[in-house]
Amino acid sequence: MSIFLSPHFLFLCYIFGIYELQVAVEGCSHGELDLIYEKVLARERQEKAFFDVLLLCGDFQAIRNHADLHSLAVPEKYRQLGSFWQYYAGVKRAPLLTLVIGGNHEASNYMYELYYGGWLAPNIYFLGEAGCVDVGDLIISGISGIYKKHDYYRGRYERQPYNKNDLRSIYHTRLYDIERLKLLPKSDIVMSHDWPNTIEQHGATQDLIKKKPFFAEEIRTETLGSPPLLDLLQTLKPTLWCSAHLHVRFDAVYHHDSSGFRASGSKQSGPAQISASVAISKAAADPNQISIDDFDDSDDEMTAPVQPQTATDSVKAVKDFGDGEEPLVPVNEVGTAVAPEVEGSTTALEEVSATEDEGSAVDAKTSQTTFLALGKCVNKQTFLEFFDTKRDSNGNLKLSSSSASTGTDTLDPAKRRFPSLRFHAPWLAIVRALHPWLSLEAQQAALPSVDEIKNRIDEANGWIEQNTALSGTTDGPSEGQRHALDVGRIQQFVPTAPPPPPESLRMKKLDLRRIPPTPPLVNPQTAAFCDFVGIDLRINTPIQGPPQLLEQSKVPQILPAQSDS
Question: Exposed, middle or buried by CB within 10 Å (0-12, 13-18, 19+), for 558?
């Protein structure tokens, strides 16, 4: 049986209301998990309903202990432990399924351990440097990092402990990851930290300039954002694209048509496209010869995370070291956007609803994409937004703003149901097919031709279906049993580095020079994933020859159900 969601199954989901998922989206986390979850739970109390999944769009800062701070790309004065370690150590638990991508202020050593994705902590799943999963019937893709041209064409050459240059380049997006994501048949939601290049031309551009006047020159020259992400946007045509990074709320509607429609007053010409067969740039020369400007990555807009004094302390007031901006739209008491009451004005979601025909069948990829960027996790910015998602009878995904009620009824956390979290089968095939081109050197080898890639993916699809027990599985939910692609069946959270010792938490200030950096660690989740898709493990292991595909793979045993998945 097909491993993809069939139109018949999607129709049944629509009729019986199986997949009406409530999604929360957050911008830059900056280590403030406690505050983020506090705001989400407050919104749930208002709506008298649970959200199914929370999407965090980068600058997550998964710092397990003080040794990880050596791998955090922030100025020294902002190198603080934050609150993530408490979720990692089991002191606290994420209340809902949380999907994470990386930004440009991360504990890059831990995220590199999970290059293909994995549990950062119970209920907190990292999509990897590039990744795609199914949450219920939603296909959610993610790309970590930000764009820098001089690193885009390189391999993953950085090694721990990171030197000053490696500390920056490790989170720069690579062509290899973008090109793999472009091979996906479709994606409903895409998460990125960086913005797609010129996306600001498709919304209220002048309002953005008023809020962030220092963007004006980049907007004028069409250099704001990432050209590869624009290419990915135009290829995947998702329903929703979520970003962060620039510390401002901004929404837009990108129309996927030949006219190249933009907001009034914007230019018609766009940047040159990134070709799948692009030649590897000469910029992939000796990386040590590149001097990376610290200010390019917005270090001057960092927010210092709150430093808990003990394992049981809750997060207190958040001090904003940024620009103290006000959001573009009013914000309610839980930090979410409220549509402005201006005659004739519309939000991006309202424009989508007004232009879509509910009764018409459309291509698998939508004709327009709603883009949403959110700010950083401080009370002065709009950093959270909430959506209801539902498919119509044709399988098309519909978005609507989640509207809070005025009730204050208490919700029982024990009644929360976690949606299914599964590997996306086409993505597994792509990972396997292009594994031989994973470069851990400075030079990224040129990718194969389009025809060769297609043939390899076809072969990989067959291998995945045969070797991951997919034959005969149903398309729909598997109540009471484990599905072959359930993430929790293959990957279970395993701590690989110790949490901070109690005595270090009692110290007001630590001298990091006396604490060695975390050594390279092989994460069991990465090993399990590689085994699952039949590729050799190369992350944080001695490099011996080129990447290899394995003919046989030992499929892990089915494990008891866990709420983490």
Answer: middle
Q: Where are the alpha helices (DSSP H) in 435-507?
A: 450-467, 487-490, 502-505
Query: Who's near 261: CB < 8 A, 6+ residues apart?
Result: 202, 255
Which residue from 117, 64, 139 is spatially nearest to 530, judged by alpha carbons?
Answer: 117
Give the model's pLDDT for residue 378: 79
Residue with tokens 């989170």: 171
DSSP lists the bridge partners of residue 135 as 138, 421
State how far the alpha carbon of 95 is from the alpha carbons of 114, 213, 364, 484, in Å.
Answer: 22, 38, 33, 25
Give Dmax over CA atoms of the chain in angstroms.
Answer: 65
**Long-range contacts made by residues 289-294, C-beta under 8 angstroms, separation at least 24?**
290/150, 290/151, 290/165, 290/169, 291/165, 292/148, 292/164, 292/165, 292/168, 292/169, 294/75, 294/168
* Nearest to 23, CA basis, from 189, 206, 151, 255: 189
Burial-class residue 348 by CB neighbours within 10 Å (0-12, 13-18, 19+).
Answer: buried
Task: At 356, list the tokens.
Answer: 């879509």
**What pLDDT does residue 506 have?**
79
Nearest in space to 249 (alpha carbons), one of 349, 326, 189: 326
Q: How many CB atoms lie within 10 A of CB 28?
A: 33
131 beta partners? 142
Q: Which amino acid, one-letter code, is at 112?
A: Y
473 with 484: CB under 8 angstroms? Answer: yes
Q: Provide the edge-to-edge strand list for the sheet that holds 384-391.
A: 118-121, 124-126, 97-100, 53-56, 20-26, 384-391, 397-401
What pLDDT, on a 0 to 100 scale, did the predictor assign at position 365?
Answer: 60
Predicted pLDDT at 348: 54
pLDDT at 237 (0 to 100): 97
Query: What's the confidence (pLDDT) of residue 258?
Result: 55
Place of tokens 């937004």: 385
Q: What is the pLDDT of residue 545?
A: 83
Alpha helices in 74-204 (DSSP H): 84-89, 108-113, 149-152, 164-169, 175-182
The label of the residue with tokens 């040129």 reads: 446
Q: Is the Cα torsion angle 158, 164, 170, 173 positive or negative in sign?
A: negative
Pair of tokens at residue 61: 């800062």
Tokens linked to 440: 């851990």
- Three-state DSSP class for 411? coil
The pTM of this model reads 0.80
Q: Tokens 């291509």, residue?
A: 363
> Look-up: residue for tokens 């230019």?
267
Task: Give long-range contacts, CB 8 A cutoff, 24+ apart: 453-458.
Answer: 453/183, 457/183, 457/429, 457/430, 457/433
pLDDT-flagged residues of the chain (< 50): 1-7, 9-18, 259, 263-347, 351-364, 404-408, 471-481, 553-565
